[in-house]
Amino acid sequence: MAHEYDLVILGGGTAGYVAAIKASQLGVKTALVEKEALGGTCLHKGCIPTKSMLKSAEVVNTMKNAGNFGIESFEPAISMDRIHERKNEVVERMHNGIKQLMKKNNVDVFTGHGRILGPSIFSPMAGTVAVENPNDDEAESEILINNNVLISTGSKPKPLTFLPFDHKMVLSSDDMMTLENVPDKIAIIGGGIIGLEFASLLRDLGAEVTVIEAGGQIIPAEDKDMADQLRNSLEDKGIIFKTEVVLSEDAIEKNPDTVTLDIEGERESFDKLLVSIGRTPNVEDIGLNNTKIELDNGFIAADAHYQTKEKNIYAVGDVIGHLQLAHVAVKEAIVAVEHMADKNPLPLDYRTVPRCIYTSPETASVGYTEKELKKEGRTFKTHKVPLAAIGKAVISGGGGGIGKLIADPETKDILGVTLIGPGATELINEAAFAKFLDASTLELGMSVHAHPSVGEVLMELGLDAEDAAIHV
Questions:
Q1: What pTM value is reported for the model?
Q2: Is residue 451 flagged as an active site residue?
Q3: 439-471 pLDDT, tens per residue?
Q4: Catalytic residue (choose from 3, 322, 451, 471)
């Protein structure tokens, strides 16, 4: 059966359903194609469920260290079943909310695998979408004729080429969503954001955790001061780090109940192995071969408004290879839809995007890092404020954290901000807002911040850049 739409969206994850809502608001007749569940990876296997599990781990950590707050510490009993039950309740509540939003905004949702067709009897240009029934290979495909297509099919965990996921001992981040028991001993390959969040979570739940990173610095794309501080904090929790270790097929031996790794000449066995070396875009079998769309290092090439070489087809989110963050995908989707509707949207400035790591302690950043500025040959000056100078941070047990601001010494423009400590992933929104508004260090420093609050660190950083800091 054929249907006509102004816009067809492939992928019902964060970018896809937000694009559908925005399109509806602009009066665009929209269909959304999703082969699994609305909300995508972020809702079902990523952002939301992992943060629910991290919250459970935080409660465990608080109980274990209650003595630091004048309350008797104790070792709580941990039930992964209960942790998953709470996580699933959170996910289902959000999932139902998205389904209601689709109904409210009159978005037609097609369940199945969408594939872009080339020029055909339905349209002289590529872009018509055929939707295959996931439960019946013999069923006739739904044909969605359209003016525009938005590809937001997301990404999936990337395996080691010589060690595929077996979903029992060699795990992906997806497998962690159904982990039945806390492993006694686990190795995590990859010291990036996802790997570190699971390292923090599992350690708080009682696992022995070893993180193996090929580079010399964990979270290699981030500020070195933050990376070093986070590593020190996680090592204090008992997490072991092995950096500059590149594993090969010969260094890994799978046994019936364990995985043995040869790390720097020493053999060590683990109950589980979590591979967290990045994510690869979902671009296979969606009909790109029927279009003029080009790939760049495996990702869909798109311009500043997310338009591909096939001008009626746009692409956003993980499939285009920018920052693989849900909030980035959302903004990209809105820009793309507004551009289709001739609304002349403001392109996304990726330097204003906050980047968060929900470990314990939390870390967050926005803007440039020192090494990026050095690479560009730009002059800058750094300013640091220890959270030991911020009363609320000390009260919260995060006095070991830091705040760091990078500024242009001439213009006093804020070039970058990095935070590590309690509430960092919330506070970074203030820094991102300041950068979006092109605020100066003086404006940040002169704004009134509540006392006591951890956010005072941002005020102190702004003042320090003006040689007027009060508490440092």
A1: 0.95
A2: yes
A3: 999 999 999 999 999 999 999 999 999 999 999
A4: 451
